[in-house]
Amino acid sequence: MKVGILGGGQLARMLALAGYPLGLEFIILDPSKDAGAVNLGEHLHGAYDDKALLTELAEKADVVTYEFENVPAEVAIFLNKHTQIYPSANALAVAQDRLVEKNFFHQLNIPTAPFANISSVEDLQEAMKTIAYPAILKSRRMGYDGKGQVILKSADDLIKAWESIQGVPSIVEGFVDFKREVSILAVRNPQGEIVYYPLSENEHRHGILRVSQCRQHDALQQQAQGYVSILLKKLDYVGLIALELFEVNGQLLANEFAPRVHNSGHWTIEGSETSQFENHLRAILGLPLGSTATLGFTGMVNFIGGLPESKQILSIEHTHYHLYNKIPRKGRKVAHVGIRADNEQQFSSALQTMIGLAQKSDNS
Q: What is the pLDDT at residue 363?
């Protein structure tokens, strides 16, 4: 079987690495000659909307997926006429527009922070009469890892914020006084079978994920599973989905969902019976889903912008180093370290050591 992937970054790389033990082959469409995954399969070098390359991808691949949600939905619609593509174009279209996504959550009675649609500075000024400061202005499309976002602290920030976001269609969201950020990963195959991973508790800085820790037996697991189950069924979703949430006063508010494998689930590579990457591949191929049982105490630390010497990491017990084959630069995810240990003390010690190394090499 040959799997096509739109995008050749680290997520595509980890998908391919998970697929080789299953006997899968990969064909990767990416505009960059040196994308991190392109040496792990056949590389179609060109734009995502190149119809000739898309036709070739559809002819060669038994199924197509994608590693990031900014692939134009029209591309998914085109491919779906020629081959199977998962998740669906509909899921992609909802996820890549923040206003559509927020309205979709509300249609499903999934609570969110307060928000408003913004098309002009006048809209922004009017919305902030009811949305309390601080707040955040976000472009409706293309923003990730903190890009396309401006924090609003007072009315004096509004005009400058609108100019900095270059007047693109946006939303404004009120801040919520959250206790923590969590995410839930779930997988659904075409037969409707669903499996869930334990909650990940996540730490961000400058809009970029830094640390994720698996939280087995979390009190809010069932609430999170309920929300993501509604999404999966409403979208008739196939593949892995990640739903990001805020905990506020013991309740969960939805932030956004990602229709793909997700950074906060990288700990599943060493920390689960079946990683998120293998289970995504199983799902899109219509195969039985693997166990999501957790192995010991587990988590993940991202390395942003720079890297320590490999021996500094490899000398630490209970850690697993994943390099992305990317040239370090400011704000770029270049590696992560998975941590898995048999007891909490071992895990905590390794985690704190990795966080220290990541902070020293951070160039964000």
A: 83
